[in-house]
Amino acid sequence: MKPMKPEFNQDTPVQFLKSVGPARARALSRLGIETVGDLLCHYPRRYFDRSSAVPIRGLQSGQDVTVHGEILTASERRTRTGGSLLTVTLGDDTGVLFCVWFNQKFLLKQFRSGRKMMVSGVVQMHGGRAQVAHPDFEVFETGGKDDDSSPGLHTGRMVPVYGLTSGVGQYWLRGLVHQALTKMEDLHVDPLPDYLRAAHGFPDRRAALENIHFPPDKPGLEAARDRLVYEELFTIQILMALRRDSRRGQSGVILNKPGDLTTRLVGDLPFNLTAAQRRVLKEILADMRSGRSMHRLLQGDVGSGKTLVALIAALFVIEQGHQALIMAPTEVLARQHGKTLTGLCEPLGIGVETLTGSTSAADRRAILAGVAAGEIDLLVGTHAVIQENVRIPRLALAVVDEQHRFGVRQRGRPASGSGDPVHVLVMSATPIPRSLSLTLYGDLDLSLIDELPAGRQPITTRIVREKDEDGVWDACRRELKAGRQAYIIYPVIEETEGQDLKAATVEFERLRDDVFSGHKVALLHGRMKGKDKGAVMAAFSDGDTRVLVATTVVEVGVDVPNATAMVIHNPERFGLAQLHQLRGRIGRGKHQSHCWLLCDRYLAEESFGRIRFFSENTDGFALAEEDLRLRGPGDAWGIRQHGAPGFRLANPLRDVKLVRSCQDDARELLERDPGLDGPDGRVVRLGLKIAFGKFMPLQAG
Ligand code: ADP
Ligand code: MG
Questions:
Q1: Cα–Cα distance measured from residue 453 to residue 434, given in angstroms and rounded to the nearest whole number
Q2: Is the pLDDT of residue 636 over 60?
Q3: 460-617 sits in which CATH class?
Q4: Given ligand 1 and candidates 308, 344, 430, 618, which is best to mutate, with the most ligand atoms within 8 Å of its CB?
Q5: Beta bridge partners of residue 547, listed in sequence order
Q6: At residue 654, does pLDDT exceed 80?
Q7: What does CATH list as the number for 273-449?
């Protein structure tokens, strides 16, 4: 029997496309592409305008150009600082252009002389010679496996440039997208009703997808992009509104008989709450008194004191006979919270337990029994562990710390015994620009801690070349001598071939035996067992260990106010948000803190710009906006790697106008047709199901 011809729709696995075998399917899945729909949402990063390449003679500094030529020479050499410099000379009939790459040695093998190549980038003139650094490029292969692509896609037009991975070539991917566009049968299903398309002058879905991948011209591309951006924002907006509405009538545990625990805790603190902490607490407690269930996002920069707010909220439910839960994204953080909260709760006679992946089976059973019997009032744990069917009979409040680490918001949450919806408080240190939070967190109410505890001194941050590292170590030793502690951060755990990054495990020995000899130095990284991690962290927070050599496991939440020095190796390896989280580990006490960014290589302009921006800014909001500007929301908020929908094209910073109009449109539609079962509503509902069905099944009604 002949195999059935597959019907091509969004959910068809990519293997059903011609030229995709198991190996290429695997390679594609590294790009997050499993289905034909995913493939069509793998939008181009940029375009080569091959309708208009320019001659090399006459190029001027600062011009952003595309040049077509032939590779004359290609060579690689070591630079004085130990990096690698790759130079390709590209010639056309009018002159020679130098293309250079730093530390991209692996590119060399593609640059065979005689091959045709196209490059795009910004021209710099150096003594009369034209150069582009790190250009976008494409080498035209002659023969070889990339020949199975459709002709006519690669020249003489605007050509898409996709993000790639090994095993997925530009040519081949272009052909594959083209094939998918031709074969897909449900492209006519459009989540935007006709009246909205008409109002905005948008092309239909098929035209938009065709034009975003293979634009006829610039205006055609703009129109396609606007439409797809609008569609992303609009559908998310509708989803959030539906979620918000479905909760609106939802009753929550009513808490209107406060006891004295919160007052006692606050009275015992060695400091006063900040005005911002008091304000957000008021908002949180008002929610929980209201009889409706709380869904609130608590935003506050690193070190602004969110943990304490969470604890007070927890005590508020505990003093009324209920239980509370605090979840953290990492084991290190869960254990730290467990320790801090136990310390604060013990004097009040409150039972706290911590549950993580490394809790022994016996302890786990005992803790769960204690929770079930109501002896444990406050349970702390990692998100992963708690979600596995933990039942907490009198649960009234669930706090989710450092939410942004999970990327898109998780749906599952533990249930209370009574089945009443639990109050939910989500906490995040990543300041989310308002335009984005309205869409991403549009179903939550927002509380903002916009002030740091008094007496904090701004952290100084310096960029230092590795050859000057001795000065950094001297400064660190001075901090240690004064009784303080230090973090030394590396981007990787172990050295791997082909990557000359300094690794934590190797450098650890040098730091322990040489740089910091006489001080207690410990190593912390993600591949250690949970128990060992806990022990290392505890010794550091007790002040017993003075120097912690670590990878980014300390990135979120870790709180050791006595640590005042941080050295970050290869800072270019981290995103702005991540750097901000890392640096947020210091500057948490009353002492002046210092951060050094240690660079061992020449950084490309873009990376350097980012690092410099970081060294000059400590405000989380400024950093988040810049991160969003540089990377777009998908990457900046880890949405993309979680494979969730939305923000593939849209960028709420750039697309402010579209954000606004789609909010108005969504509101109007939902007012007119709250259940989405009128003619327009049904179109939207179907579109949502097709676009997001895999991630967020829509319940009826
Ligand atoms: P984050 O908001 O980053 O989670 P934490 O909750 O870890 O910050 O708090 C950072 C540090 O500030 C902790 O050591 C905490 O005890 C302290 N802290 C919290 N609130 C105050 C306050 N009102 N005054 C002084 N220190 C505070
Ligand atoms: Mg925190």
A1: 24
A2: no
A3: alpha beta
A4: 308
A5: 486, 521
A6: no
A7: 3.40.50.300
